[in-house]
Amino acid sequence: MIQEFLLPDLGEGLPEAEIVQWHVSEGDTVTLNQTIAEVETAKAIVEIPSPYAGTVQGLHAAAGDVVAVGSPLVSFAVGTDAGSPAPEGRTTPEPVSADRPAEIEADPPVPEAVEPRAAGDLRSTAPGESDKATPNLVGYGAAPASGSRPRRRARGGATAVLDTDHAVREAAPHDVLRTGPIDLPLERPRSTPPVRKLAKDLGVDLVLVAAAHPGETVTRAHVEEFAARTPTEAPALASTVPPADPASVGARVTRLPIRGVRKHTAAAMVRSAFTAPHATTFLTLDVTATTELLASLKNDRALDGHRIGVLAIVAKAVCLALGRTPALNASWDEAAGEIAVHHYVNLGIAAATERGLVVPVIPDADALPLVELADAIAELAATARAGRTSPAAMTGGTFSITNVGVFGVDAGTPILNPGEAGILAVGAVRRTPWEHRGEIALRDVLTLSLSFDHRLVDGAEAARFLTDVAGVLREPGRALLLR
User: How much is the pTM?
Assistant: First the structure.
């Protein structure tokens, strides 16, 4: 019989998702858990696995369309004869769920009747059973990873590398540095795979085409029209001035839609800035001992395959320091009139991606030894750069770190993530004349910037926390003394 699959709740109560691309077409035969589509929410790109084994009868949205949760996404022909409706009395086979093994039969037994399903529910319910909560699709039933999956491509012209410290750059979980105009859209323009291929073949930048048609899905006609108006070799993006709107050369303003990660980040930052009273304190310190330690670790054969950088050392120091200053690892619960002090550290690491800023979380980072913490940061960075960080991976943080040094910045005043009491910005490591043992010498120096919620943290506590972090960076052996 024909079974409609509704777009499920992808986590965090997000009301809609945009179709990035389909992996199936009408008439294709699919298996359980096969990836059928990629969708983009306000937080992440999520792969949608098929909850049925059968034949795709119809796709209810095109790439670039925004679909509300609970709306039809795709229709399947399921049952013993996927090409025709099942005999009367037969119902939908139960789709795979998190509590069932993946190795189930292609056509499992089905009950005689089912209760009506709520929008987005992925499971059938036999008579007499109570309605169960809709399972969260994120992380459930995912198909095995495949090397054939297309990767999201960085847009725009040549990439310029800033003159920043090498160790910081290696450790930073940031995407490649870009010098393009900061007001270009960082989300991928709405288009279909054939249109994107056409744009690539013609040397057309879809960002520029999308700027000429704000709020619209970029079509083949848009790309061909833009290609006809521009030289055969598309110029690289200007480094400081945004490109002119192709539809109105000479226009002084280009208007771009606010959506995706940019929209979500903006809302979160405004909520944080106008909810928590921010304060920031700074500390500049000599980290030569840390950089020398990292240089020695690179030659250690026991650490082959592991990349330990300045950021990993900072993360370890933060976890140790939070144990001595619990106020910075707490949350202000206005509704309950309580302060929740966390006895674990879920460490958020800010990552700049082509879709905007995301802050994935390393759960129980305080329980990880340095090597495992460095591996977790590297994995987090790779996932974020590929746009595969799930919404669930960006929740539950108790403290965050942002590495502004990778952009050549010495210090800043970062804004707190909502619900967290502190965020630490790590500046660039610079070779600087510095007082050392009574003399002036060239030393590796960086600046730490700590923003904190002044409802939870006093200035003295913030200063003690920074001093503890700095103590580990000045003398890494001090980590043996902290508990």
Answer: 0.54
